[in-house]
């Protein structure tokens, strides 16, 4: 069972020059430090993320990554320059927050896109990571992005045909997220909205294994819908702004970090083999494969994640 939602004891804004990054801290100010890396990209650090930690044991830093949530400017704003929103910029923000709060090392907790960011941060700053707890684990390589689009297009050909319908003919055989990002950055407001709806419909299709897609209430918000679609396609179209071996080729740097990875067997958002091979190279990592759960996880995933933070918080 997850813990009750705890209220922040501190919050503020990290000024980076080009972005104002909103952060908050929950739990025990003297507790074990942890940082939460939300998914999306662009989903925001909603209160739900706080519930994986015992507020008596942990001091948890959460923040809305550049371009989303309570950070400004939003990716949905017409004048926002997405070139200042990359994985390297987000890693720098994590480090700036660590320094701001006087933390030496902290547990890194993340899910989905946040797991890619957590791994990228860990291999860049291994001395600053005490443990890793990651779920829905991905590394956002070209192989995984192609899986998310072209491979899943073979599973859901009708929905994939709808997704491709908006893409110009000359771009239909290539990088689908990059092509969509160009549509989403168009000066044509109607085209931007059609593209945002199209991408979010594909997200809903992949999130529902059987039957018609379950509509997500957050996509009903036009501002969220556009910002989310822009950020996802911006990062996925650039394969996470990482070299092909940006994570897999640097795992030697984190072999001494205890880690817990959780993935659903039914998680079709990326191939399970990626995290399985990753875990084989990390002697202190435990991979839990949950047979009956998908990318969003459910009761077993929640229990495993809370068990991990409880264990590391002792």
Summarize the structure.
This protein has 314 residues and is α/β, with parallel strands linked by helices.
Structure report:
This protein has 314 residues and is an alpha/beta fold. It has two domains: 8-140 and 242-312, Alpha/Beta hydrolase fold, catalytic domain (Rossmann fold); 142-240, no CATH class. It has nine helices and eight strands. An eight-stranded mixed sheet has the order 1-2-4-3-5-6-7-8, sandwiched between helices. Strand 1 (8-15) and strand 2 form a beta hairpin. Helix 4 (157-164) runs antiparallel to helix 6 and helix 5 (176-184) packs across helix 7 (222-237). It is globular, with a radius of gyration of 19 Å. The model has no long low-confidence stretch (mean pLDDT 96). Residues 35-295 form the AB hydrolase-1 domain. Its EC number is 3.4.11.5. Pfam families: Abhydrolase_1. The active site is at residues 112, 267, 295. Keywords: Aminopeptidase, Cytoplasm, Hydrolase, Protease.
Topology:
Layout: E1 8-15, E2 20-27, E3 32-37, E4 58-63, H1 87-100, E5 106-111, H2 113-124, E6 129-135, H3 142-155, H4 157-164, H5 176-184, H6 189-207, H7 222-237, E7 259-264, H8 272-280, E8 285-290, H9 299-312
Helix pairs in contact: 1-2, 3-4, 4-6, 5-7, 6-7
EC number: 3.4.11.5
GO molecular function: aminopeptidase activity
Subcellular location: Cytoplasm
Summary keywords:
314 residues; alpha/beta; Rossmann fold; eight-stranded mixed β-sheet; 8 strands
């Amino acid at each position: 069972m997850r813990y009750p939602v705890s209220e922040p004891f501190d919050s503020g804004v990290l000024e980076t020059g080009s972005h104002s990054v909103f952060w908050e801290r929950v739990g025990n100010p003297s507790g074990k430090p942890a940082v939460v890396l939300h998914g999306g990209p662009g989903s925001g650090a909603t209160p739900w993320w706080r519930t994986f930690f015992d507020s008596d044991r942990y001091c948890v830093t959460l923040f809305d990554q550049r371009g989303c949530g309570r950070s400004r400017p939003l990716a949905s704003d017409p004048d926002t320059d997405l070139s200042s929103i990359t994985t390297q910029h987000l890693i720098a923000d994590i480090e700036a927050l660590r320094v701001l709060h006087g933390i030496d090392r902290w547990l890194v907790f993340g899910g989905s896109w946040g797991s890619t960011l957590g791994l990228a941060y860990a291999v860049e700053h291994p001395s600053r990571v005490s443990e890793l707890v990651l779920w829905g684990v991905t590394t956002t390589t070209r192989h995984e992005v192609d899986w998310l689009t072209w491979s899943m297009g073979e599973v859901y050909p009708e929905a994939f045909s709808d997704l491709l319908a908006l893409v110009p003919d000359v771009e239909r055989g290539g990088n689908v997220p990059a092509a969509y990002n160009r549509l989403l950055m168009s000066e044509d407001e109607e085209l931007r909205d059609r593209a945002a709806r199209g991408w979010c419909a594909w997200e809903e299709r992949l999130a529902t294994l059987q039957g018609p897609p379950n509509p997500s209430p957050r996509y009903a918000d036009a501002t969220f819908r556009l910002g989310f679609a822009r950020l996802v396609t911006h990062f996925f179209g650039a394969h996470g702004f990482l070299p092909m071996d940006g994570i897999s080729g640097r795992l030697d740097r984190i072999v001494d970090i205890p880690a817990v990875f959780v993935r659903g067997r039914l998680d079709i958002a990326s191939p399970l083999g990626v995290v399985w091979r990753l875990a084989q190279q990390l002697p202190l990592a435990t991979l839990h494969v949950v047979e009956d759960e998908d990318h969003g996880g459910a009761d077993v995933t929640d229990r495993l994640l809370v068990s991990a933070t409880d264990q590391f918080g002792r």
